[in-house]
């Protein structure tokens, strides 16, 4: 493994934590004897081009410094290659780092862990989801949660989580069950009405909401969580339980496991790793060992 390492930085992650986090992370890597090159894109497209160029140039590792949005970009660059991915998680959600058991919002500790992993060649392969040419590490969301995202993204004010809280209240007021068509590995088409369907490669989204609490990054399968047709009152009772994963015990919730998932519904957008994929129908495939990650 070459001693030149690439830091892939989002300076705006976590309200500026990305820029500050790059310094202790780089210091830990340099102290371990690595040469560090920093890549910062002008926008998402430019950042991805630069990350792919670093991978094509055989960098020793791509270290993503930011939140799940930047990790999502990094996955597009390293998936299917031999280049290992490190994560310095300093964003708002950090769900991919949580799934890997990595430090969150502790850049010096995360940098030291990455340096130790590089020196000890501690690299493990984990699964990724793929929709078309787009890779994802955590959850593909569709339904009530993705409509909250749609509404929040259209709102110019307020900023941060408050915007999405207000979007959730607005969507609750307007919500109606969604007719879905779901096809899993068995080939059977399931016609059902549901509040949401989440396809989990990892267990959580939205900063620790364990919507697919049993998902395992190394089993070659998605956990598909279906929250059935439930009224607003039931949804308000069930949804807070998602942070503990205990919503899975509710009679309106079912879980399937599959390597390939086809989702179709009218006027529903799919989001993966918090990033917009596009309108359903979508087909997601679990690709075993698609990315090599640094860590414990």
From TrEMBL:
GO molecular function, one term: ATP-dependent diacylglycerol kinase activity
InterPro entries: ATP-NAD_kinase_N, Diacylglycerol/lipid_kinase, Diacylglycerol_kinase_cat_dom, Lipid_Phosphate_FormReg, NAD/diacylglycerol_kinase_sf, YegS/DAGK_C
Keyword entries, A-Z: ATP-binding, Kinase, Lipid biosynthesis, Lipid metabolism, Magnesium, Metal-binding, Nucleotide-binding, Phospholipid biosynthesis, Phospholipid metabolism, Transferase
Swiss-Prot/TrEMBL cofactor(s): Mg(2+)
Domain DAGKc residues, every copy: 1-134
GO cellular component: a single term: plasma membrane
Top-level taxon of origin: Bacteria
Gene3D superfamilies in the record: 2.60.200.40, Probable inorganic polyphosphate/atp-NAD kinase, domain 1
GO biological process, one term: phospholipid biosynthetic process
Family: Belongs to the diacylglycerol/lipid kinase family.
Protein name listed in UniProt: DAGKc domain-containing protein
Organism in which the protein naturally occurs: Streptomyces longispororuber
